[in-house]
Amino acid sequence: MEIKTKDTFELTNKQSLVMNLLSEAKGPLSAYQILYDLNDHGFRGPTQVYRVLEKLLELGRIHRIESINAFVACQQEKCHEKNKEFSLFTICKICGSVQELLSNGLKNLVKSLSKDNNFLLKNSVLELSGICSKCKD
User: Fold this and answer.
1) What is the C-alpha to C-alpha distance for residues 41 and 109, in angstroms, rounded to an integer?
2) 122 — pLDDT class (breaks 50, 70, 90)
3) Are 104 and 90 in contact (CB under 8 A)?
4) Ramachandran region of residue 8, left (φ > 0), alpha (ψ -120 to 50) or beta?
5) Which pTM value belongs to this model?
6) Taking all residues of the chain, what is their mean pLDDT, rounded to a whole number?
7) N or C: which end of the chain has fewer CB within 10 A?
8) Phi and psi (nearest 5°) for 37?
9) Is residue 41 situated within a structural domain?
10) Nearest-CA neighbor of 129 among 64, 61, 65?
């Protein structure tokens, strides 16, 4: 099965399997969870999973949540074009849900701080940890 992304790049079968798994997941998945879930689909080792994840990251189709070493499907349309150097996530400590947010104000603040400190910003990921509205109630 091959699917076309919005940027007309055709995903390989394994990339499509990982993309679909992450898109349907209720929360972030580790590489080893992906390997376990797709073992019946030809994934035999972590190296295969990491190669696919690396390519999907490069294409801007997924994000790595650094603090929990897990991956989520991109939730914002064309965010890989708009926010190549800045990503913002909320992570619920109770249910583990991850929400991708867009904040031009915060993005501009981070860029301004970098510029003010003569620092060439390549990539910035901000992860906010707390309790989501569903778990708070």
Assistant:
1) 44
2) confident
3) no
4) left
5) 0.81
6) 87
7) C
8) -70, -30
9) yes
10) 65
Residue 8 inside a domain? The answer is: no
User: Is 89 part of any domain?
Assistant: yes
HEC-encoded secondary structure of the chain? CCCECCCCCECCHHHHHHHHHHHHCCCCECHHHHHHHCHHHCCCCHHHHHHHHHHHHHCCCEEEEHHHCEEEECCCCCHHHHCCCEEEEEEECCCCCEEEECCHHHHHHHHHHHHHCCCCCCCEEEEEEECCHHHHC
Domain count along the chain: 1
* Helices 46-58 & 13-24 angle (0-180, nearest 10): 80
- Where residue 128 sits, what CATH number does that domain have? 1.10.10.10
Mean pLDDT confidence for 43-69: 93
Alpha carbons within 13 A on the beta-carbon side of 95 = 14
Residue 21's φ and ψ, nearest 5 degrees, are -60, -50
